[in-house]
Amino acid sequence: MRPLLCSFLLLPLLAACRPDQVEHLSNTKELAVEAANWEVKRIMPADLLRATRWAGDSLTRTAERELRTVLAQKLQEGGVAAALPYCHPERLPVTDSLAKVLQATLRRVSSRPRNPANQATLSAAELNPADTTRRVARPGAEEFTYQRPLVLNDQLCLRCHGTVGQDIAAADYPLIKQQFLQDQATGYQLGQAMGVWRVSLQRPGVAEFWTMKTRKVMKKRKPLF
Question: Domain named Tll0287-like: which ranges (predicted)?
Answer without folding.
Answer: 100-200
